[in-house]
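Human: You know discrete backbone vocabularies at least as well as I do. Show me how you would write down a chain together with its backbone fold. No explanation is needed for now; the record alone will do.

Assistant:
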Amino acid sequence: MDLAEFVKQRRKEVNLTQEQFAERCGVALTVIRKIEQGKTNLNMDKVNLVLAMFGHELAPVDSRKLMKENEK
């Protein structure tokens, strides 16, 4: 599941509009809309404020390390 689907699904599970959800997360409504539309030019700090509502966080990934782990 991608970020857009995850956030939209979880927001709907708790019966919040985008506006209500943005307010609870402490971000602008445009942030929620951009996330749910699958935009790629997002501020990671803002995304993490949203994901914190569900106990998650995004972090940078070292693709070389990930590829090595997948080779095992």
